[in-house]
Amino acid sequence: MSTMPYKIDTNSFNPTRKKTILVIDDDPTTLNLLVNRLSNAGFSPVTTKNSAEALTLLRNQSFDLILTDLVMPEIDGFQVLSTVTHEDPELPVIIISGQAGINESIKALRLGAWDFVTKPIDVALLIHQINKALERAALLKENTNYRHKLKAEVEARTAELYKRTQELEDSNNALRHEIQTR
Question: pTM for the whole thing?
Answer without folding.
Answer: 0.75
